[in-house]
Design goal:
CATH topology: Immunoglobulin-like
Distance between the termini: 56 Å
Low-confidence stretches: 1-26
Structural class: alpha/beta
Order of helices and strands: HEEEEEEEHE
Helix content: 10-25%
Largest sheet: 4 strands, mixed
Shape: globular
Number of helices: 2
Number of strands: 8
CATH architecture: Sandwich
Strand order of the largest sheet: 1-3-6-5
CATH class: Mainly Beta
Radius of gyration: 20 Å
Mean pLDDT: 85
Length: 146
């Protein structure tokens, strides 16, 4: 009976160890895959095969008001959204960085993925004033899975 209890607890211990191993570094994703850079006002073509991890990268500085979001998830038959990650470019207060929107390609097809920076919008999605409207913008990525 003691053996069974010890054997039964081994899967639980293994599960806890696996979960703890995946939680390091403050990032939900450790593999960004192929990184494709974009910026406000650009349209970037992305061509990948099925079953590939990729990230759409945009310059981001939340301390000055940047607030990048994924406008809509792409067609699930073409690509699946995994997460948004942020990497700071320095330790100084106000240092900018890069936001990565991480995806996996699925099957053949095309998808338009739009990222929007609503500048100084806080938790809202609409620019609150003229300056915010002028500084806000979109980065568009035209994905083709071959």
């Amino acid at each position: 009976m003691i053996r069974r209890k010890a054997a039964a607890s081994l899967p639980a211990v293994a599960l806890v160890a696996l979960l703890a191993a995946g939680c390091g570094g403050g990032s939900a994703v450790s593999d960004l895959g192929t990184v494709v850079k974009g910026a406000k006002g650009t349209t970037v073509p992305v061509e990948l095969g099925p079953g590939r991890r990729f990230s759409l990268a945009v310059p981001d500085n939340p301390s000055v008001g940047d607030g990048w979001t994924l406008v809509a998830v792409p067609d699930a038959k073409v690509a699946s959204y995994i997460s948004k990650e942020h990497e700071s470019s320095g330790d100084a207060t106000g240092a900018g960085g890069t936001s990565y929107f991480v995806f996996n390609t699925k099957g053949r097809g095309t998808a338009r993925i739009t990222l929007r920076d609503c500048w100084r919008c806080g938790t809202g999605t609409t620019p609150p004033d003229e300056q915010s409207r002028q500084m806000s913008g979109e980065a568009i990525f035209e994905l083709t899975v071959r």
